[in-house]
């Protein structure tokens, strides 16, 4: 029928929770430890990729620029670190705590930062991140201050009495992160493809119109921030397990800018772009920091170049090439 | 608690606030006119301090040259600001605000690293110029001359800026442009040139703040980071775009900060934040905001 | 009386944009507001839909006071609004634009667990609106790529998604070609048969041919109000606005 064809072109097709896309992503990401020189780098990349994708829910999809994701990441890391170190919790429970911590922090930050004047959000999230950093710095008994929270245990995962999954070696830990990463990506994609997620895109496109058709956009922005906080906190928790400690850099402003840079380079407008960005930024920083200590300069120049000339990021570039090789069918609105 | 101590801290709060005011005024004017939040404002403050340092030490003995440095550094910084505006920021006026902010943030990273490359990572200091050494005595209280000078200078400068904005025809253009950019363009006034001038001016003010802070605080590459955060709080408190709001906000933050240092130093940031939170809850646009 | 305002006033600093306007819109009317540029018409609309706060006065909709409600609340009580400058979701397709607008008024718009296409209600309703406005052929096009005339129709489609009983249209034919204007007039006449409409317009053909009541605004004040025939003959209006020309 003509109508069906038009609707499919105009709206895209329904995507089940797990589909071809999921498996391709899972497979591609599984290649990381094979391709990279160190397996630990693979796990670290996935952790940051999750943080970047989570950050991009706000910037790429809702149009909110947050400089506060370092605070969310850091809170998640400290939460897991403390739960495992002092209360000897199961790693999964510790990660749940991290996600909760991220959500709560995002809720508090959001209630204050999400104002009728959208730009206050950018400034206030920056300020909050600084507040969190100074808090972590001063509260030495809890966080270890400058030295960091040391000796975070990484116990094997007990599934049932007697059955324990080891996550000690770098490959084992990578697989653990891989599972959680894929699960998170599936959930995030579902949220972005939900009616709620479509409203976020509307808010980014034209917030005044979104209001005029009946959406209370403050509420949507706040929930988006909380959801982003959940996954960023989770990434932080994974980081604590990864490092077996929580350095104070986890909550620093620099972590926030890491996520921004990864999303920018990878591609703001797509779900998967920040993953590409995380791969590139992490590899580049490993390589560059050994060659040239003036790494900040390169970062800043890259920022500027990408913001002016390549806002679609590398993902847009790659999909453009892919589009030339394999013709696309219709307009996919789901991105 | 000794009332004298409290009054002294109040005075110190105003001094600290004066520096915040200079930076915040630049920030708020740039926003009011260009609709851009300049995330590079902190880095520019640092740059001002470093350039003043170089100028002061280059010009032979530093006794008279501090003044020359303070006079010149803001212009150097303003010139750099003009270059950034013309070659980088101007391309972004059609883009969403968030991208403009990202651009200025990239500029921050570049500036900070250039500072380290040129002046080294350790930080510089400059002794107090001899004209400002000493104290002013008023009854029981002694005020450092330097700080009195700072308050007086900033107050005069604010008055001058206020007169410029409210009483001159140029200021009228700025006020109109804040309200309606396109209309000003239609009137035949080159809005883009005005943007460059306003941006350079705002940036120059921040550079001046850095130069003035040099004797007391010295210069470090990342000195701009914390002060940028505080100035954001100032601007949110006072209302984005409001000149008088920036002054009020700066005073409030300065005084709260100094008082907290007296009573409970670790709680300084939290107190400032709480003050801001309270103000926003009651007046979401800031004390004097109109947008 | 579906819409009524009492002494509606708006000050911007020293400037009074709207001064003591009293509107009385009957159920089912096509009510036009005309006046020269700067007369305060859009400001009036902005107060009606909560985009800007009211300085003084009250607004009543179906007998209830609605002064000070915010835009999203206005949409919920079934007042639809189109804007003078297009406010579209430019990077989204036409059907997605309308679907989004529609879903705000159906259940599940806050759902984060299901794919948006599993809610067929908003899609169905969106299609119906596109059919009513005869723009189904462009449903899959990106809103930003449409020619101006079709964008103006999409503006109205978005207003219709609220399933309104009252439609506020700000210069629906602004910037449209004569052909598009004719199409728009036909469309408005059709819509006027099933809902109450308040229009701001400069197109005199349109205003005179379809309005049941016309109010003339000049420098923020009502200077005349009545049927098209009465307005045409009114001397004050002629001087201020129509410039003495007859139709």
Task: Give a structural overview.
The complex is a heterotrimer of chains A (335), B (291) and C (247). Chain A is an all-alpha fold and 335 residues long. Chain A contains 16 helices and 2 strands. In chain A, a hairpin with a 2-residue loop joins strand 1 (157-160) and strand 2 (163-165). In chain A, helix 4 (39-62) packs across helix 13 and helix 13 packs parallel to helix 16 (313-325). With 291 residues, chain B is an all-alpha fold. Chain B has a domain at 19-221. In chain B, 75% of the residues lie in helices and 3% in strands. In chain B, a hairpin with a 2-residue loop joins strand 1 and strand 2 (141-144). The radius of gyration of chain B is 19 Å and the shape is globular. The N and C termini of chain B lie far apart (42 Å). The model of chain B has no long low-confidence stretch (mean pLDDT 86). By secondary structure, chain C is α/β, with parallel strands linked by helices. A 6-stranded mixed beta sheet of chain C has the order 7-8-9-4-10-11, with helices on both faces. In chain C, strands 1, 2, 3, 5 and 6 form a 5-stranded antiparallel beta sheet that branches. In chain C, strand 5 (56-61) and strand 6 (64-65) form a beta hairpin. The longest helix of chain C has 15 residues, at 178-192. Chain C starts with a strand and ends in a 5-residue tail after the last helix. The A-C interface holds A 3, 6-7, 9-16, 190-191, 193-199, 201-202, 205-206, 208-217, 223, 227, 330-331, 333 and C 49, 51, 70-72, 74-76, 81, 83, 87-96, 99-101, 103-105, 108-119, 123, 127, 136-137, 139-142, 158, 161-162.
